[in-house]
Design goal:
This protein is an alpha/beta fold. The chain is built from 19 helices and 33 strands. Bound molecules: SN-glycerol-3-phosphate (G3P) and calcium ion.
């Protein structure tokens, strides 16, 4: 059954030692159908290895035959042994250098503290009970059969796995503390030869000790060696250089799981290294690491990883978005064809009044799913969970619906943009900092990917195929912080240029349809925004705020076109719609979510990308879109539209600006700029003076995001710029006009 689920993986792997001539893939992983053919974030192998860490050590006493047997019953592909050496030079399977923790040595040999393995003969160790400690430590998992389990020798453990593994289960063994045991490596090789497994395809030797591995390389040049890394071992090192340095002996790396990020995967793949992180015991961690493309995982719970790999699962988290006072869009992605079930309720245990919606994850959408849920209560916290119907693994999320239209509730939102480009790749700390604020929602202000930049997902940029664009979104979703923010609150995503290519004008860019398709696949976009590729729409947060989301890319004239009555950024229809929204709104605050700035010159001379033409920098520069922005500015002033805030990112520094466009001494509107979350850091420069900007704050050269709070009762709107650690660098309150 599982093999039929995983399309296009017909390859077979050679069996271990004696036994079946061929073993079909035990845990094939979907890597073909929507893969862009160049991403680093995929396994080198097509069969992800379930490596039973010390046996099935979550369920039975580690390094006993019963733990090894349970691992094989749970379909582990490998059983891992840690090796110590006895006083009389015998190799045993035991993790610690002493016998105290996992045997009854203290009771049996009370005067032999500290019960170092190297101080005991094998015969003395064979008398120990290596199982009862487990029953005492984990009474809920205690079994009588564990009592009296003994410490196996390496030879015994190998023979046991050969006997019970049906020729399919491989061997993975670690030289523990080799400096304590001179001659350990020679002994290992001697036993591997004696048990006739030295030439097995499914055999790995591992160690934290480079010296030990180099010695093993000399003794047995063909054995696959895995260099283990704890957190500290890579600190301050360039992972690309480090992996290149060890490539003369290593076949792969075993990093502590928190070390696995796109950069480590890229460095590993540059050296054809397998990546086997440890120790991965929760399905959330298993999924997160699989999304990064690891080749296998050390786990105490082989059953959980086996179960996960058996069929498509939610592979890149969930999201909710385009939320109103009665509806929301829910999003998820699986790693293969599946029906995805969403359960939604105000009850976090999903016992009462649960709404169920199902979506189909299809290959043509890169297995992404968007479903709309309606009939929701306003101003209410909802909980949801999503799972691929074939899988038990589910991912939870939550969001808050907007308050009723006429209510005046305080609101807190966060906004940011510019994520994953120009040499910066995930993870980015700002997401976790924003999630910690528990905002009412997150406005992702564009450049949610950098499709045209080199990153592990697209090593040969720019993105050209939809698979390339999808790979970029998947790369950014490997960021646990982003997944956590998307899980915790509703998101309104807008696109800017790097969702397609730098500074593009939609109508004239041939990649627009492809980039737009991937953008709509990967964000919870409502039908109202998606239809006719509009993307612009107004969302109300009660009567506290109307958020007018623009589409600054889909309708614009080419940047190089000289400004004038025929040049547009928004297109006539959207411009009229914007004016209508402003005129109609009686919300305290009108937030205009734009992906480009007003008076910060962007793009380049004679090809300005924002509204400003920067002609004070280059008097001959006829480009920019000031002609059109003047219409917007004049409209706001003439119609007396109050409390207007343009919110954006795009410029790669933070800046807060108030505008007195008609120079009458009264603020006409404001502009709030944050970013980048994760892209090259810029510094503030000269503002284009056309619309009367006055800088309240500007700061560059740091990752940051914005917080915007509206308190109707106090008639105040407050903006904060916070760095990636959540430290506030600037705060300012605006007094709202009645
Ligand atoms: O062998 C991988 C992993 O097990 C390394 O840590 O301490 O559990 O042996 P440890
Ligand atoms: Ca180990």
């Amino acid at each position: 059954m599982k093999k039929s689920l995983i399309a296009g993986l017909a390859c077979l792997s050679l069996a271990v030692t004696s036994g079946a001539p061929y073993a079909v893939l035990a845990h094939p992983i979907e890597t073909s159908a929507t893969d862009n053919g160049q991403t680093t974030l995929r396994p080198l192998t097509s069969d992800v290895a379930v490596i039973a860490h010390r046996g099935a050590s979550a369920y039975s006493p580690e390094h006993t035959l019963t733990a090894y047997k349970q691992a094989m019953t749970m379909k582990a592909d490998y059983v891992e042994f840690d090796l110590q050496m006895t006083k009389d030079g015998q190799l045993i399977a035991l993790h610690d250098e002493t016998l105290a923790r996992t045997t009854n040595a203290k009771e049996l040999y009370p005067d032999r503290a500290p019960w170092r393995v190297k101080d005991f003969t094998l015969e003395e160790i064979r008398r120990l009970d290596a199982g009862s400690w487990f029953n005492k430590a984990y009474p809920d998992k205690a079994k009588t059969e564990y009592i009296g389990q003994h410490v196996p020798t390496l030879e015994e453990a190998i023979e046991f796995v050969k006997k019970h593994g049906n020729g399919k289960v491989g061997l993975y063994m670690e030289t523990k503390a080799p400096s304590v045991y001179p001659g350990m490596e020679e002994k290992v090789i001697e036993i591997l030869k004696k048990t006739n497994v030295l030439d097995d395809e499914k055999l790995f030797l591992e160690s934290f000790s480079e010296e030990s591995l180099r010695k093993l390389k000399t003794l047995a040049p063909n054995v696959k060696l895995i260099q283990l890394y704890s957190g500290g071992m890579l600190a301050g090192k360039d992972v690309y250089q480090e992996f290149k340095r060890i490539s003369d002996y290593a076949s792969g790396v075993g990093p502590s799981k928190e070390l696995v990020v796109p950069k480590l995967m890229e460095a590993a793949h540059q050296n054809q290294f397998l990546v086997h992180p440890w120790t991965v015991n929760s399905q959330d961690d298993m999924v997160s690491l699989l999304s990064l493309g690891v080749d296998g995982e050390f786990t105490n719970n082989p059953d959980l990883l086996d179960d996960l790999l058996d069929k498509p699962f939610i592979s890149h988290g969930v999201a909710s978005g385009d939320i109103t006072d009665s509806s929301a869009i829910l999003w998820a992605r699986t790693n293969g064809k599946a029906n995805v079930k969403f359960e939604l309720s105000t009850d976090s245990s999903f016992k009462d009044n649960t709404i169920v919606k199902t979506g189909r994850a299809n290959v043509e959408d890169d297995y992404t799913v968007n479903v709309e849920v309606t009939g929701l209560k306003a101003d209410t916290r909802y909980f949801y969970r999503a799972h691929a119907v074939s899988s038990k693994y589910s991912v939870n999320g939550s969001f808050k619906t907007a308050p009723q239209e006429n209510s005046l509730k305080p609101m807190t939102m966060v906004w940011g943009g510019d994520t994953g480009g120009q040499g910066e790749i995930p993870p980015f700390k700002s997401f976790k900092a924003m999630a910690a604020l528990n905002p009412d929602f997150f406005l992702f202000s564009g450049d949610t990917i950098y499709a045209d930049n080199k990153t592990p997902a697209v090593p040969n940029p720019p993105s050209k195929t939809v698979q390339d664009f999808w790979a970029k979104y998947k790369e950014n979703r490997t960021d646990a912080g982003l997944r956590s923010l998307l899980q915790k609150t509703g998101t309104y995503s807008i696109w800017d240029d790097h969702e397609v290519t730098n500074d593009f004008s939609g109508p004239s860019q041939e990649l627009t349809p492809t980039g737009l398709r991937a953008f709509k696949d990967y964000w919870p976009i409502s039908e109202e925004r998606s239809q006719a590729d509009k993307l612009y729409h107004k969302y109300s947060w009660g009567n506290t705020m109307d958020m007018i989301i623009l589409n600054n890319r889909g309708y614009r004239s080419p940047n190089t076109q000289a400004d004038g009555p025929d040049k547009t950024m928004l297109g006539d229809e959207q411009l009229k719609w914007l004016e209508q929204m402003l005129l109609e709104s009686d919300a305290k605050v009108k937030l205009i979510a734009t992906s480009v700035p007003i008076s910060v010159p962007t793009g380049k001379a004679n090809s300005r990308d924002g509204w400003a033409n920067a002609n004070q920098i280059n008097p001959n520069d006829q480009t920019g879109y000031e002609y059109e922005f003047k219409k917007i500015s004049d409209f706001i002033i003439e119609k007396g539209i109050k409390n207007v805030f343009f919110v954006t990112t795009d410029v790669h520094f933070a800046e807060i600006i108030k505008y007195d466009a008609n120079k009458d001494g009264k603020t006409d509107y404001n502009e709030l700029i944050s970013g980048p979350i994760g892209a090259v850091k810029g510094n503030p420069g000269t503002l284009d003076p056309t619309f009367g900007p006055e800088r309240l704050y500007a700061e560059g050269n740091f990752f940051n995001y914005g917080v915007f709070k509206v308190d109707p009762a106090r008639k105040q709107a407050t903006v904060e710029i916070q760095d990636e650690n959540g430290k506030t660098h600037f705060s300012h309150s605006f007094q709202l006009e009645d």
